[in-house]
Amino acid sequence: MLRGEWRDTVAREGLPDVEMDESGEEPPCPACGTAAPLVDGACSDCGLALG
Ligand SMILES: [Zn+2]
């Protein structure tokens, strides 16, 4: 039986090798233009709520 081989194939080919990178692009703040990660859903520079 080839159950082990089948499972190994699914394990290798069943899942796309894609990594989600959510920290690569930060939209600039419409108020001050700062393109930095939000702090508690608000701009870290001027404090405008963006979340
Ligand atoms: Zn801002």
Could you explain how this protein is built, in words?
By secondary structure, the chain is an all-alpha fold. The chain has a domain at 27-51. The protein is built from one helix and no strands. The radius of gyration is 21 Å and the shape is rod-shaped.
List keywords for this structure.
single chain, 51 residues, mainly alpha, 1 helix, 22% helix, 0% strand, binds zinc ion
Layout of helices and strands, plus pairs?
Elements: H1 3-13
This protein binds zinc ion.
Helix content: 10-25%
Tell me the distance between the termini.
53 Å
Task: Find the structural class using helix and strand composition.
Answer: mainly alpha
Number of strands: 0
Largest sheet: none
Q: Provide the residue-averaged pLDDT.
A: 78
Order of helices and strands: H
Beta-strand share of residues: under 5%
- Structural Rg: 21 Å
Number of helices: 1
- Shape, please? rod-shaped
Question: How would you summarize this macromolecular structure in one to three sentences?
Answer:
By secondary structure, this protein is mainly alpha-helical. The chain contains one helix and no strands. The mean pLDDT is 78.
